[in-house]
Design a protein that fits this description.
The chain is mainly alpha-helical.
Length: 530
């Protein structure tokens, strides 16, 4: 009697231990599912951290580009863009806050603090540069934002950012690898628990079967059922009628079979879900990697186009500057010609005035000749009255009269020439006035053209600076896309590895025939995990 009780107690203990191991198996399986969910969350957090780190750097780069553009052009739009980023958009602060919310280590926080401190140290220098640009002291403003200190600080910020992203990648990969290792250990532990449970149930069944006269029949039935279980068939039911003390054995074996069926069924469903999700993740990661590669190609093409436009704009600016210099020389020569024409007009007016004065003198000579002729006639009359004594005087009077007539004729000829000269001088003065007016119009046109050429040169310089900023922005975008491409390629490799491991799990579970989970169709294109 005591032997039977001890044997029954032993059977109960073995059954209880089996049930506890089944519970432990279920807990271990749930732990595997939880670890896989945490791995997915870690990948999402890694992408979010990289995105917000780039958001921080884009905010800092925007401040740099806007202050440099304002220092170069003095355009108020760049000043407003700088202040909007600093006071409203606050991409740097948002990126840091989001990274802290996701969770970072103390070393990573130290890198962020160092980047923020360097970026904040540049703000007073940038504000001073914008004040200098507002005062039209652009050379000093450009020296402030392109000087060695500013350039060195920007280089340090970029180096810290690269180190920060590298730390994120290393930490994320280590954490994911550790969790994958833990998941694999948990899977192995689950199968160990299942094997122990089966072994305990076998021992329990054998121990109980030896207590009755129907030992052989029960052993044969249990052996058949265990053989089916060893072949992976968990879908059968124990239909043999166990009586007496063997009834608990049947119940325990049936419970064990049901528990194994449920456990493997859950593993089957979960492995199918994990396999589908990992394949989808692998396809998405590969698609993202291909998209990043296409983006890199497009950015390189755009960068080459921008570089060509920048070179052509610089050449246009140089040509505009040469045209400005040529226009200035033309305007200078035109002004000199206008001044010489004014001098010529003054000389013509002086000639005209002198001609009038000469005419007056000739008129006076003509009057003198007329008076002399009258006096000569009077002298001739008086000489005739004098008779023989006045004959000599008459000859002199005749010569004087002849001289007066010649003087009068000469004065008339000189007057005619002076009048002709005055008419020609008047005509020359009119032509000089028309020429001076034409030169004035030429000077005004050249001056207007000079202003337009200067505006073209200034616009070309502003376009060159703007294109330079666009080129720098494209370079930063290309750097970010390159980082994203590398990250997506690593994610694709990790997802492919996870897909391979989940497929191996499907293959192992597919060896079981259980209730509630259809047999799995193996895809020969996916290699088994070793």
């Amino acid at each position: 009697m005591n032997g039977s009780i001890n044997k029954s107690t032993t059977a109960v203990a073995l059954t209880t231990l089996s049930i506890l191991l089944v519970i432990a198996t279920i807990i271990s399986f749930m732990n595997v599912v939880s670890i896989n969910a945490n791995i997915d969350k870690l990948n999402v957090d890694r992408f979010d951290l990289a995105f917000n780190a780039n958001k921080f750097m884009n905010g800092s780069a925007l401040l740099t580009n806007e202050v440099r553009a304002y220092a170069a052009t003095g355009n108020r739009i760049h000043y407003d863009g700088y202040m909007h980023e600093l006071d409203v958009a606050k991409n740097r602060d948002i990126g840091v806050a989001r990274m802290q919310e996701i969770g970072i280590t103390s070393d990573e926080q130290a890198k962020i603090d160092a980047m923020s401190a360097l970026s904040n140290n540049l703000v007073p220098l940038e504000v001073e540069a914008m004040e200098l640009a507002a005062e039209h002291r652009r050379d000093e403003a450009l020296e402030a934002v392109y000087g060695d200190y500013y350039h060195t600080t920007i280089t340090q910020i970029r180096a810290l950012k690269d180190e920060f992203l590298e730390m994120l990648d290393q930490r994320a990969h280590k954490t994911v690898d550790d969790m994958i290792a833990v998941s694999e250990r948990a899977e192995r532990l689950t199968f160990v628990f299942i094997s122990i449970v089966v072994l305990l149930q076998i021992l329990n069944a054998l121990f109980a079967l030896f207590q009755t006269s129907q030992l052989k029949k029960y052993i044969g039935d249990i052996s058949q059922k265990l053989r089916q279980m060893s072949e992976g068939n968990m879908s059968f039911l124990i239909d043999l009628d166990y009586v007496g003390e063997f009834a608990p054995i049947k119940a325990s074996l049936q419970k064990t079979l049901d528990a194994l069926n449920d456990t493997i069924s859950h593993i089957c469903s979960a492995s199918q879900q994990v396999s589908g999700a990992s394949r989808q993740l692998s396809d998405d990661a590969q698609s993202l990697a291909n998209g990043s590669a296409d983006q890199t190609t497009a950015i390189e093409s755009l960068s080459a186009s921008i570089s060509d436009v920048r070179e052509k704009t610089n050449r246009s600016s140089d040509v505009a500057k040469e045209a400005t210099g040529l226009s200035n020389r033309i305007m200078t020569n035109a002004v000199k010609g206008s001044e010489r024409m004014d001098d010529m007009m003054k000389a013509v007016m002086d000639i005209n005035d002198a001609s009038h004065q000469v005419g007056d003198v000739i008129k006076a000579i003509d009057d003198v000749a007329f008076q002399t002729n009258i006096l000569a006639l009077n002298a001739a009359v008086e000489a005739a009255r004098a008779g023989q004594h006045g004959r000599g005087f008459a000859v002199v009077a005749e010569e004087v009269r002849n001289l007066a007539v010649k003087s009068s004729e000469a004065a008339k000829s000189s007057g005619e020439l002076i009048r002709n000269t005055m008419e020609k001088a008047t005509l020359g003065m009119n032509i000089a006035k028309e020429t001076a007016a034409s030169l004035k119009e030429i000077v005004d046109s050249v001056e207007h053209n000079n202003k337009m050429v200067e505006q073209i040169a200034l616009a070309s310089d502003e376009q060159s600076v703007t294109i330079g900023n666009i080129y720098a922005g494209i370079d930063q975008v290309a750097h970010v896309i390159q980082r994203n491409s590398e990250t997506s390629q690593r994610s694709a490799a990790t997802a492919e590895q996870m897909s391979s491991q989940s497929f191996e799990l499907e293959r192992l579970v597919g060896g079981f025939s259980i209730r509630g989970c259809s047999p799995l169709e193996m895809d020969a294109s996916i290699p088994y995990a070793n």
